[in-house]
């Protein structure tokens, strides 16, 4: 289903939202699941094996959300650092649960080889409401820059700042869903007062490389690993995925830092954004989580093997 900007229920076509429109949008959002039950309780269950780092708190009255990261207990300055982030877009479920599953089942495999920092849910307000934006109708994944207007993005950048120059690999876990076209892109067009141009949702997993510092062999290693778990998105008739040219099987590229994307917050030589497609009839929720875990493991394994 597609929704044109002229029929989006909030705003006036051609006019960007103001405070009244944002307030009207906020009034439509409803809590649909629990950050505490799904994320905080899962993190608490890992405290016996990892350091749990509070790195901030989101205050969106009347709600408040503690922000937690999972860190290797044997963190050593001499080791390379690995950053895994999930839930930058709160509605992208397998990013959150894939990060937690990786920490639970595979993080121990890298003890003594790398320092791990896993941030499973960057945007808890969006997680609870199954939404892409934060409470201010801002996209955290376009807000990773100095003086960020998004609390979620600013908090993560503060967490990473002390070791950002030592990050070897950063994997940012995302999903592309049917609601990108039925809700989120039409809402974005309405918010910004521009025309909505329908797009095409790819059926399958894909990656986003850094166009400024591409690592095609690294991306291919991840694709090869994930292909054992779920199917890889093909290019469309134009040779594109979500409007970007395919640069390798299941891989497109963005200017990560210039766009304010989470995967661009460090100068890690190896970085990628995963995109799982949970609405495919060919993929189960378990496969989606497993695909995220496979991507993280393959990324770390490649980076450790090829690090200079």
UniProtKB/TrEMBL annotation:
GO terms for biological process: proteolysis. The keyword Zinc applies. InterPro entries: AstE_AspA_cat, Peptidase_M14. Gene3D superfamilies: Zn peptidases. GO terms for molecular function: hydrolase activity, acting on ester bonds; metallocarboxypeptidase activity; zinc ion binding. Residues 31-307 form the Peptidase M14 domain. The keyword Metal-binding applies. Pfam families: AstE_AspA_cat. The active site is at residue 275. Keywords: Hydrolase, Metal-binding, Zinc. Its cofactor is Zn(2+). Transmembrane segments: none annotated. Belongs to the peptidase M14 family. This is Peptidase M14 domain-containing protein.
């Amino acid at each position: 289903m597609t929704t044109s900007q002229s029929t989006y229920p909030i705003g006036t076509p051609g006019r960007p939202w103001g405070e009244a429109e944002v307030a009207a949008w906020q009034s439509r959002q409803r809590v649909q699941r629990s950050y505490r039950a799904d994320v905080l309780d899962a993190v608490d269950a890992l405290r016996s094996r990892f350091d749990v780092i509070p790195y901030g708190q989101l205050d969106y009255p009347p709600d408040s959300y503690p922000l937690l990261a999972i860190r290797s207990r044997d963190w050593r300055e001499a080791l390379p650092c690995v950053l895994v982030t999930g839930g930058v877009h709160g509605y992208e479920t397998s990013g959150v649960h894939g990060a937690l599953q990786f920490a639970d089942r595979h993080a121990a495999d890298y003890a003594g080889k790398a320092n791990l920092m896993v941030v499973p849910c960057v945007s808890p307000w969006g997680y609870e409401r199954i939404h892409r934006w934060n409470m201010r109708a801002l996209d955290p994944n376009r807000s990773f820059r100095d003086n960020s207007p998004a609390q979620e993005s600013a908090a993560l950048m503060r967490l990473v700042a002390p070791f950002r120059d030592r990050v070897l690999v950063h994997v940012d876990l995302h999903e592309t869903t049917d609601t990108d076209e039925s809700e989120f892109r039409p809402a974005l067009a309405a918010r910004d007062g521009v025309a909505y141009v329908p797009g095409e949702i790819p059926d399958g997993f894909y990656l986003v490389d850094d166009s400024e510092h591409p690592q095609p062999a690294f991306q291919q290693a991840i694709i090869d690993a994930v292909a054992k778990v779920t199917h890889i998105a093909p290019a469309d008739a134009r040779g594109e995925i979500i409007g970007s040219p395919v640069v390798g099987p299941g891989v497109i590229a963005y200017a990560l830092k210039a766009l304010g994307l989470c995967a661009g917050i460090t100068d890690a030589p190896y970085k990628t954004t995963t995109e799982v497609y949970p609405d495919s009839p060919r993929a189960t929720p378990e496969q989606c989580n497993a695909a995220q875990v496979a991507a993280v493991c393959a990324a770390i394994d490649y980076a450790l093997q090829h690090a200079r």
